Amino acid sequence: MTSNTLVCNAITLKGSVDIITEFFDYGINSILYQRGLYPSDRFIHSQKYGLTLLMSIDDQLKEYLSVMLNQMKTFMLTKSVHKMVLVIINVETHETVERWEFLIDCDKTITESDSKSVDHKEIQKGIRDVIRQITASVTFLPLLEGKFSFDLLLFTDKDTDLPSALWSDSNPHLIPNAEEVELRSFSTAVHKVNALVSYKNCE
Amino acid sequence: MQSNQDFRSRLPLPKSVFKSAIARPSLQTSTAPSGVPPLRTSSSASQSCVKPTLKVLSTNSVQTALRLRPHPYLSSHVRPTFSSRHAMTVKSIGLVPAVSPQVVTRLDFDVENNRESLLSSPQDMNRCLTDKRLSSKTSPAVDWNSLSKEAEVIALKTQITKLETLLDEMKLKNSQICIDYDLKIEKLTTESERHQNKCLDFEKQMKAFELKSEESSDQLLNAREEFGREYEKYEKRINELTKTVMDLTNQLSDNEVAIDSVEATHQSQMVAVEHQMKALESKVIELSEEKEFFVKHIQQLESDAKDREQLDAELKSAKVNICLLNEELKSYKDGVKLSDILENELQELRQLREQNVELIRSNQLLTDVHSKNLVLEEKLIALETQLNERNNRLKGVMETDLEVNELRKRLSEWQELLANDSPIDVHKHLSNVQNNEIILRSELASLKTQFDDMMSKREQLESDLMTTRNELLEQNESIKKLNRKCLLFTKEKESYKSLINSYEHDVTLDWNKVSKDRISSLEALVDDYRNFVEQLETEIKVLKNGEESEECQHRIKELENSFNKIKEMKEHQISPESEPMDTNCAPPREPTAAVSYRIIHFNQNPIAVNIAKHNEDFKRLVEENQRLQNRVLVLETGSDADVTQKCDEGIKNSQELEKLQKKLVSAEKSQQKIIDAFKRTSKEFREVCYRLTGFRIDLLKQNTYRLAHMYADSPDDVLMFESDGTDRTIKMLENQYSNKLQESVQTYLTAHDSFPAFLASLTLELFHKQTIV
Questions:
Q1: Based on the structure, what is the number of domains in chain B?
Q2: Where is this region: Disordered (chain B) (predicted)?
Q3: Model pTM?
Q4: Which of B17, B72, B306, B461 is most buried, by CB atoms within 10 Å?
């Protein structure tokens, strides 16, 4: 996957998609660990982007994330996905308390065979900064007390078909009177990812 | 000084000294550096004769002279030279103390020698005195006393200074010696303390050893006691054995006595039997043999006794040896025990020492470790504080980074917005925009005032409109009333005309024409009434909808349009205020494009799974709760049946009950809804029918209907009808009211069998009755 970019200092659409999905994998695991949605003993340390990141060993979670990321990859190759949102919802009250938005801007002109020159280290640095900000965001995000779980929403084009019968439409799970904090962004020259977290104002 | 005086009294000066002193009367006192004092005069005659005027020499010369003087014991007595003698005299008088004591002693000895020599020549002494007198008489006028005194003073002063220096030196030496002694004392005290501690330790050890010795002595005493006891035992045994030996000896003696007695008897027998010698020689031989046997036996017994004695002696010796061996054994055992104990104790001591050493080492290590730990803890605290500071700094840095990123984004956005424009251009543009804004605000204010005016005008117009409406309504109503009246009048007129015509025609009565005319007129009347009813209905609808006049509508539309325009202008003016003025604000985010996107998610997502689990848990808990409640109820009833089965049945029943209740409730609700809807529709239908036909039809019993007219005089004026469901035939039932309407019954029902005509005629009659009056 990443060998496309590492060897030639050039990146293709597929390589960019792989990098973005890998980032989402690590980013989502980091968010789940930082927000305490899963017990900390269900995470193991792994080195990536020059950081020590925590990845879940829960089989159900891993299976779910693999399904989501694979589908996201196909959507990104067809340039039909524009946003990926991780919503944290209270199990008892069904109330959305947090929304982690990842806006994906794709270069529409690029094709599968095209490649662009890019510095891989810059991409790594950008991803590292975003993940560090995700880790640091724990300081201002409110404490989640109670039973919470999450869901991943994909914002696709209107004319996009559902991949299978296991998929369905969903509402955006917006939070009224939410506090928003914009995080850093990074770019792979093909895709640009902007991160944003909005949370319920407890006051 | 007294000693010096005594010394002076003892010492006679030599002749040569006096000679030299006399020869040189004009001696002057030379001020020596040390200040040798001049000679002093004494009261005694010996001293006066001895005191010549001498040359006061310097101390150095005196010292050198003294040095040159040999030891009196080593060398023969030699008359000293002048200088040495002078030094001696000077010394004898008590001058020049800066001379070593050894030299002084030597001088004393020499002085004594000289004294002897001097005393041996009193003539010389007298000669000296006479010479002195002569000198004093013959010398010029010189204050020798003062000079001598001065010389003495100077010499004393020098002596004092010397003594002082000596004293200082001695003091220094003394102080040094004191310091050294103090140090030595301290050392000695420390050593003494050490020795004392050692002594204490040794005393402790001694005490311990004493204790041990006491213990060992106690043990020894115990051992001795045991030894004594065993000795006593053995003595007892020995005594017993001796007793047995005694007994044995007694037995032996007894045996011997017995043997003697036997011999005596034998002898008596022999004597008695001598007579029987011959006859009894054989017996004698036998007896001798027996005697020999007995002798042998005795010998054997003796040998046995000897053996016994030997054995006893051996026994004794053996016993003694045994005792000794036992004692040795005991001592060995004791020694072994003691050695074991002591070895154990020594080993324990060694172990204790080793443990002590180890403990000391470990203690030192622990103290080192503790100190290191303290240092490390301090470092840790410092590092933690540094870490906290750095974390805070990092947070601040991250926040600043966030701010910087935001600012950069804003800057980039601004740059994108501004493109190639310079800040001055932007400023100009902003100033222009501000000016435009001011203008727009003023326009807005004016428009607001206009709007307010328009609103007030609108309100006025609305009020006018309401009044006009009311007036219109009143007018319409009045018009309607008048029209009705007109119609009524016309109808009355026509009816009167018709009556007249009928009356006229009564003469020439043509029932067909009359009826036709009547019918046509009635039909026309009905049509008019229908049209009138329709008009009224339309007017009612219009009134309900609240149609306004065209002018008011137009005016209202204009006002609404202007109001909307003002609103748009206001919003448009407000929005530019926010954009350029506050450059620090973040640019407005694009609206969420949820409308333009399709939001999809995986059905088997964690939240759905968790919600399902939560619901299942909830249901399970509810079921369990119900089960437990039923169980409680069953247990409270106290039946002997199977509790669990009853509980399950109870749960099932309760669940079915709940379901049935829910169904019942839903069914009841739906039924109620249907009933309400039916009632509503039926009510509306009946109301409409009543209004249109004028008759209220009520179903009293099965197939019996009651009709009550709108214009009936009394509520009791009702008609009863009966229908046959199978044939669909309707019959009118007779009652008081129907009896009053016999004419119309006959004309319409009996003649023409038409219920509608009958009912219509009835309505007309009643209407006429109501209106005409």
A1: 4
A2: 22-47
A3: 0.34
A4: B17
